[in-house]
Amino acid sequence: MKPRRIIFTNAIKIYLGIVLFFLVMYLFGLENIAFLRFFNVIFVLWGVNSAIKMNLFRNKESDYFSNLLVGFLTAFVAVIMVTFSFVIYLDRFNPAFLDIVGESLKWGSDLTVGMVAFTLLFEGLASSVISAFILMQYWKNFKSDHV
């Protein structure tokens, strides 16, 4: 399986996990509880781990940097998809949610969709790097002869 396919397959898993999680939060009226939003890291770690495992076991790729890059790109592609969807959600479906985000995270009341999108991309980039590095600490000792 090509690394590009591994990246997009697992990025879609992350994306769907986060979107469904937020949909459930919305349906139960929990979207204003900021603490629950941090659980999306579970979906990121799950998808990045799955991508690294696929690259190790299906592609027999044991190079540390290759697997690190697959993990990072998987998370980052998912972050781009989630950010794009969130911007559409804020702009078209629920502009009032921008106020909830501002109040719950103490960002202030003068938030714009662009500010939130930039912040999500920046935080997503950081979490992508951190997630890939954390998971590679586990997978770094697996060599192709063990796979």
> What is the N-to-C succession of helices and strands?
HHHHHH
N-to-C span: 15 Å
Number of helices: 6
Average predicted local confidence, pLDDT = 88
Q: Tell me roughly what share of residues is in helical segments.
A: over 70%
Shape: elongated
Number of strands: 0
**Rg, alpha carbons:** 17 Å
Strand content: under 5%
Biggest beta sheet summary: none
Given the helix and strand composition, which structural class is it? mainly alpha
Unreliable spans are none
Task: State the domain count.
Answer: 1
Describe this structure in words.
This protein starts with a helix and ends in an 8-residue tail after the last helix. It has six helices and no strands. The chain is elongated. It has one domain. Helix 1 packs antiparallel against helix 3 (40-57) and helix 4 (64-93) runs antiparallel to helix 6 (113-139). With 147 residues, it is mainly alpha-helical.
Q: What structural keywords apply?
A:
mainly alpha; 6 helices; single chain; elongated; 147 residues
Q: What are the SSEs and their pairings?
A:
Elements: H1 3-27, H2 34-37, H3 40-57, H4 64-93, H5 97-104, H6 113-139
Helix pairs in contact: 1-3, 1-4, 3-4, 3-6, 4-6
Could you give a quick summary of the protein structure above?
The chain is mostly helical. Helices cover 76% and strands 0% of the residues. The protein has helices at 3-27, 34-37, 40-57, 64-93, 97-104, 113-139.
